[in-house]
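Give me the fold.
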Amino acid sequence: MKKRILLTVLLMAFATLIFGLEEEDLEKFLATNQCVNCDLALADLAGRNLSKARLRGTDLFGVKLKKADLSEAELVGVNLIEADLSQTNLRNADLSGADLWGAILIGVDLRGAKLNGVVLDFADLEQAKFCNTTMSDGSIRNDDC
């Protein structure tokens, strides 16, 4: 039993080193609303006003952004694999080249967003809002205008 507990603790610590966020990067981002090429993986940013955030090339793996405001944000080339963006405001955000594999995008507002070259495999886009949204293939989607 003690070996199992120790093994679990070690695995959690190892996972944090590999996938965990850098506290300095998080502090920098929260203070300035920008953090280019940072590691914010697994951060809890749910419900925050991050409008016009500049996060180009940032690792946001598994981040919690439920009900956050990321309108007009620069999210070019970010890693949002398995992130929770449900009910998030991404109006006029630039997500060009972002990886949203397996992301939760239920009820997300993508009106005016740029999704050029975005990976959306296994992403849940249920009830997502589209209007003048540039899709991954360059087409424009206007379902909710």
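Residues 1-17 have pLDDT under 50 and may be disordered.
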